Amino acid sequence: MGKLRGKVAVVTGGATGIGRAAAKRFIEEGAFVFIFGRRQDALDAAVADLGPNARAVKGSVSDEADLDRLYAEVKAERGTLDIVFANAGAGSPLPLGKITAEHIDETFDTNVKGTIFTVQRALPLMGPGGSIILTGSSAGTTGAPGFSAYSASKAAVRNLARTWAEDLKGTGIRVNVLSPGATATELAKEALGEEGQRAYGAMTPLQRMADPAEIGAVAAFLASDDSSFMTASEVAVDGGLAQL
Ligand SMILES: NC(=O)c1ccc[n+]([C@@H]2O[C@H](COP(=O)([O-])OP(=O)(O)OC[C@H]3O[C@@H](n4cnc5c(N)ncnc54)[C@H](OP(=O)(O)O)[C@@H]3O)[C@@H](O)[C@H]2O)c1
Predict the structure, then answer these.
(1) pLDDT tops 70 at residue 236
(2) What rounded mean pLDDT belongs to the chain?
């Protein structure tokens, strides 16, 4: 333990699910973590659980002013930033034939625009040794029925790491994508339903969904110097779902 000792991290979507599990693991490894999300009650509950090395900032990744406020708080309180886990994301199914402009805008505003500005606005606080982790999805690689907008948005996230590894050449900042498979969180419950979750568990070679802590453990690896020669990579943490 302690591989993130003294590091400062931002985790978007850090109040629940994968983000919260990652924030917990980052703190166990010695980091100070700012979690970011839109629901104050969820943020308060998370900070009560995560303890004194967590701070919550309320806002949306789709709102650049909110992100500026987040990073102003990080700067005021810690002065610097080592780790950005751009994890906030959302998605619901709508089959081809039923897709609306609102559905596309909503999905891309959070998953693509939100990811871009989460990272872009963080850069002035980051330096050599910095690690950026983007949350992709097995859905970005495979075809998932009804998930056109979500899957396309996650395929876009996968490319952001490739492009940014180029843009970040010479800065000492690394960027990688962590792509979970089916993981037992609120999002999975809402997007897949009980039956869909069972089906995804059954489709997965490890024959179950992931516990969010299993994704958080790999996020901590990517955040730490243990992954110091990794950039532009996609790390699948999917029980084999998208690998066969
Ligand atoms: N669970 C899975 O099976 C699975 C599989 C592959 C990839 N993923 C990805 O993993 C990431 C985390 O999802 P999860 O499964 O942990 O679901 P979750 O528990 O619903 O977490 C999503 C988090 O993102 C936050 N969020 C959503 N929109 C936001 C916005 N505009 N601004 C700021 N925060 C926002 C939510 O908080 P507020 O609503 O309070 O803002 C929530 O805390 C997502 O990117 C998702 O696409 C999940």
Answers:
(1) yes
(2) 97
Query: What is the distance in A from the centroid of ligand 1 to the CA of 187?
Result: 6
pLDDT at position 60 over 70: yes
Catalytic residue flag (residue 200): no
Largest separation between any pair of C-alpha atoms in the chain: 51
Ligand 1 close to Cβ of residue 91 (< 6 A)? yes
CA–CA separation, 135 and 87 (whole Å): 5
pLDDT band at 191 (very low <50, low <70, confident <90, very high): confident
Q: Which residues does 220 contact at the CB level (< 8 Å), separation at least 6?
A: 3, 4, 22, 25, 26, 29
CB-based contact 140:155 (threshold 8 Å): yes
Ligand 1 nearest-atom number relative to CA 215: 10
Does residue 187 line the site of ligand 1, with CB under 6 A? yes
How do residues 105-136 score in pLDDT, each as one tens digit? 999 999 999 999 999 999 999 999 999 999 99
**Residue 87 in contact with ligand 1 by CB distance below 6 A:** yes
Predicted pLDDT at 229: 98
For the entire predicted model, the pTM comes to 0.98
Q: What one-letter code names the amino acid at 11?
A: V
The CATH number, out of the four listed (3.20.20.140, 3.40.50.1100, 3.30.200.20, 3.40.50.720), of the domain defined by the range 8-182+214-230: 3.40.50.720
CB 174 within 8 A of CB 235: no
Of 122, 236, 113, 112, nearest in space to 183 by CA: 236
Neighbours of 48 (CB within 10 A): 10
What are the boundaries of each domain within the chain? Answer: 8-182+214-230
7 touches 223 (CB < 8 A) = yes
